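Why do we bother with a discrete structure alphabet at all? Because it lets us treat a fold like text: something you can write down, compare, and reason about line by line. To make this less abstract, here is a complete entry for Oxidoreductase. Read it the way you would read a sentence in a foreign language you are learning: slowly, and without expecting to understand everything at once.
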Amino acid sequence: MGTGGIAGAFAEDLQLTESGVVAAVGSRSAGSAERFADKLSIPTRHSSYEALANDPDVDVVYVATPHPMHHANARLALEAGKPVLVEKPFTMNADEARDLVELARAKHLFLMEAMWTRFLPHIRHVRELLPRLGDIVTVAADHGQWFAEDPAFRLFAPELGGGALLDLGIYPVSFASMVLGAPERVAAMATPAFTGVDAQMSMLFGYASGAQAVLTCTLSAVSPTTASIVGTEARIEIDGPFYAPASFTFIPREGERSRFEYVDEGRGLRHQADDVALRLAAGETESPLMPLAETVSIMTTMDEVLAATRT
């Protein structure tokens, strides 16, 4: 559902796996659907989202429309009885996220945020190593990219859910949530872009354990896009971009460091598709790697970040 850049990348990555195929594409215009389908050899193309949601040959819908449309588009698919994978950020705010989760649970349908980083091999390995770090003291992550200042470009357009936090900052925030859970305290500072959306955001999260997360995102420059998890016994340093297929180093407080190299085929988006297929085959309605309660918690944290910049 949608024919933008992330939809194309996901469709191409699906060709690298045997867990599923793109059976159909839906767009708000017939021309866009036709061009997308022709490029990727997709057999069925629909000129409306409603037609895609009601297509009996579609087993699960991937929502890849602009951020402000995620809630309505995912709701459309769920009401049509389809399991749904929703591109991140899941919704524009926590209220919308809770609404989708309640609907999916009421209808006993699978629903998941497409935070594809969670499903990458190196992140799975990192999670396995967390107990060896001791008490977590600090999590740090950044995500910065440079974009030409174009008011029509979606990241600068308020009406398209623009801004660094929702599009780029979601990765560091989700990473911190994966390691430390929901923060008790949130502090944030934002620098506006020429259109008024946040061009840069710096965040500091505090946790009941005493741990802290230091997170940044920007639309104005290419940052290292690295991440680290620092514990009392060891730390993990993930190469940039940490949110895509990457290698990392495990560094104990005493002893030899270990290097773990990962090379992946494609963009890395196919791994979340494999997990969706696995859950659907098992009759499950959510994934333990990206639980719905955590998605709602992350959107709540994002709301708190934005609120903190207005005080």
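What the structure line is telling us, in plain words: The CA atoms of residues 118 and 124 lie 7 Å apart. The chain has a mean pLDDT of 97.
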